[in-house]
What does this fold into?
Amino acid sequence: MKFIDFNFEPSLQEGLDSMGFENPTPIQEQAIPIILSNKDLIGCAQTGTGKTAAFLLPVLNKLTANPTESTNTLIVVPTRELALQIDQALQGFSYFTSVSSLAIYGGGDGSAFETEKRALTQGANVIIATPGRLMAHLNMGYVKLDQLQHLILDEADRMLDMGFVDDIIKITTYLPKNRQTLMFSATMAPKIRALATKLLNNPEQISISLSKPAEGVIQGAYLTYDTQKNNLIKFLLKGKDEELNSVIIFLSTKQKVKELERDLIKAGLKAKAIHSDLEQLEREEVLRNFRSKQLQILVATDILSRGIDIEDISLVINYDVPGDPADYIHRIGRTARAASTGVALTFINEFDQQKFAQIEALIDAEIKKLPLPAELGEGPAYNPEVRVKKPFVKKKSNFKKQIIKK
It folds into this structure.
């Protein structure tokens, strides 16, 4: 099947042709006809399967065929990175149309808030928003969504994990009841089904490659103590700027991200961290430099495992084993996108072996354990059936002792 078979409006098809889009992915092939027929839909699809285009293209086709000045579509997403990614994709697809859009995600100055306010009152056709920022506008009473025809919830499982379920329910009270609702999630957990029951009307269901990494990902793992991890990364990356020109390293905490960034820069590697302590403009600059290949290594917390679309990533490294096995798929989904190939490596310490065994059970495959470089010494033995307790470390109090004088 080809995109031309959907019989999109000529101006939308022109945008697809200019971007080199010819053959739809499975999620696009199944979802687009359902959305064009105005049915509600719940789609289960992993990162990298093309679901953004799956919901954007049919909505853009409807808007192109029936132009309006009001807000027609609201897309709610968990992170600002995903909001920006969807807005950028939309601008590409709609280049030859008159559709307008705006990403609303917070973190900017007062002028950004005013721009968002104008769009929400005067009517940008498509609004892409994070729940918290959208609620800030809704609470002020000026948002006009009475003509809305489409509500799209992307990465719904992640929004629920982040505690946005009440905000999502509240947002829907501001919307027309007669609308098309589309929900996309990487998993079909009971909480997702419960939310779908509340918000969707007799939805169609699609499930694409659930719990399976993209076929082009070459996976491997190292058994390593935490004290060996930084040196292992430097061993893997030193002198390989051309072979590995685009690398993402995922860590479990913001503090670890900062420490690894300092260590890699000290070693002469082109690395930059992205985390919540950075201002929004700083985060955007880091991502821009990474996309343009001016920056070789991006060091990040799991906030980036979903929600960014960067092509040609050579290598993904899980510095820590993800706490949720499903997150492993999202992390390694940053490479081997759009039928390309890539490498994903995971570092397993002595405490995370059972978690890694759960990942292997989820994907129904054993991931090859690679030998450490001889100069790093031996790592821990692999025995995931034995639970090893992490040592208890008493945290220091942040409060000074007070002396109370009687």
